[in-house]
Amino acid sequence: QVQLVESGGGLVQTGGSLRLSCAASGRTFSSYAMGWFRQAPGKLREFAASISRGGGLTFYADSVKGRFTISRDNAKNTVYLQMNSLKPEDTAVYYCAARPGVQSISGSEYEYWGQGTQVTVSS
Asked: Which residue positions in the chain have pLDDT lower than 70?
């Protein structure tokens, strides 16, 4: 069982930055690939970024590539999402998720989810 708690969301102006954190419970954090997903009002949840168990492999949605960076610290049981050059279209609730084994861009393949943190980018 893994419990995930996101933090770091907030209100930021266009072009600003935020860093989201996702703290995981349990002693097997390094066994899980991690992902960040987001859901804007009235839209389906979408993939943003994922990272492998060891942190050596990352994957990004085209919409965030070059602006967002996913990383993890297995000693701290935490995964991060550094978001730069934010745009109004990045406004969404951001969720972290965990799945055993390899990373995936499909939300249905993730087993554990956090409660989400709101990110609002003003124009």
From this structure: none
Check if the beta carbon of residue 105 is closer than 8 Å to that of residue 13.
no
Alpha helices per DSSP H over 16-84: none
- The length of the chain in residues reads 123
For residue 36, the model assigns a pLDDT of 98
Contact 14, 25 (CB under 8 A): no
Residue 89 neighbours by CB distance under 10 Å = 11
Residue 115: partners with Cβ closer than 8 Å, 6 or more residues away: 5, 6, 95
Q: Residue 26 has what pLDDT? A: 78
Q: How far apart are CA 44 and CA 42, in angstroms?
A: 7
Burial degree of 47 (CB within 10 A; 0-12, 13-18, 19+): buried
Closest CA to 33 of 111, 120, 118, 108: 111
Of the candidates 8, 4, 3, 11, the one whose C-alpha atom is nearest the C-alpha of residue 121 is: 11
